[in-house]
């Protein structure tokens, strides 16, 4: 079961990051990069943006690329992951994205990774539901340490309190799921 830590999405927190993999999501129709991706790009003096352009990455849904960071931030690897166009980003795409990101992190056999809630830097009416889906996916399908960055649009204190409530509810449900799977 993955262990999740929350951190505010700031340059200072990105600088303090100590994870093996940083997952950065981006929309096909959004340049410059925003949110956590924008911060990482800033720390790399725009190299991520140039790399996206040079590598012909469009940001289409599910497009991914693994990139070595030269340790300009606290993760030696970055996974760039496309979310498709902003207007098409819905709950179904969110769930598929979360499943894929956790699967890729597990498949890379990294002991730790960091990410923000995919798409959370845009206005999101489903943020809490999406946070719950992400937390459940991490807890059930990943066995390492995860840092979840909370976007500046949300109050970190409020989001942390909601995170604890969601975590408590998931903990209550965990034994029920185990009972159903038992032979």
What does it look like?
It is a single chain. By secondary structure, the chain is of the alpha/beta class. It has a single domain, classed as 3-Layer(aba) Sandwich (Leucine Aminopeptidase, subunit E, domain 1). 44% of the residues lie in helices and 19% in strands. It contains six helices and six strands. It has a six-stranded mixed beta sheet, sandwiched between helices. A hairpin with an 8-residue loop joins β3 and β4. The radius of gyration is 16 Å and the shape is globular. The C terminus is likely disordered.
Task: Give a quick summary of the entry.
The chain has 183 residues and is of the alpha/beta class.
Structural class, from secondary structure content? alpha/beta
Approximate helicity band: 40-55%
Mean pLDDT: 82
In the CATH hierarchy, the architecture is 3-Layer(aba) Sandwich
Strands of the biggest beta sheet: in what spatial order?
1-6-5-2-4-3
Strand content: 15-25%
Topology summary:
Layout: E1 3-8, H1 11-16, E2 21-26, H2 35-43, H3 47-54, E3 64-68, E4 77-82, H4 91-107, E5 112-116, H5 127-141, E6 145-150, H6 156-181
Parallel strand pairs: 1-6, 2-4, 2-5, 5-6
Antiparallel strand pairs: 3-4
Helix pairs in contact: 4-5, 5-6
Which keywords apply here?
183 residues, alpha/beta, Leucine Aminopeptidase, subunit E, domain 1, six-stranded mixed β-sheet
């Amino acid at each position: 079961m993955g262990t999740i830590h929350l951190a505010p999405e700031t340059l200072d927190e990105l600088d303090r990051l100590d994870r093996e993999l940083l997952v950065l999501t981006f929309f096909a129709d959004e340049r410059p990069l925003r949110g956590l991706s924008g911060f990482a790009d800033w720390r790399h003096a725009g190299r991520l943006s140039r790399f996206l352009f040079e590598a012909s990455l469009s940001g289409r849904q599910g497009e991914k690329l693994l990139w070595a960071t030269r340790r300009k931030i606290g993760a030696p690897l970055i996974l760039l992951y496309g979310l498709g166009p902003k207007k098409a980003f819905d709950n179904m795409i969110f769930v598929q994205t979360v499943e894929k990101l956790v699967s890729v992190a597990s498949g890379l056999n990294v002991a730790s990774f960091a990410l923000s809630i995919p798409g959370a830097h845009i206005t999101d009416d489903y943020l809490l539901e999406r946070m719950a889906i992400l937390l459940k996916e991490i807890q059930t399908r990943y066995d390492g340490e995860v840092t979840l960055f909370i976007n500046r649009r949300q109050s970190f204190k409020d989001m942390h309190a909601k995170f604890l409530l969601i975590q408590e509810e998931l903990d209550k449900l965990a034994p029920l799921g185990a009972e159903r799977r038992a032979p």
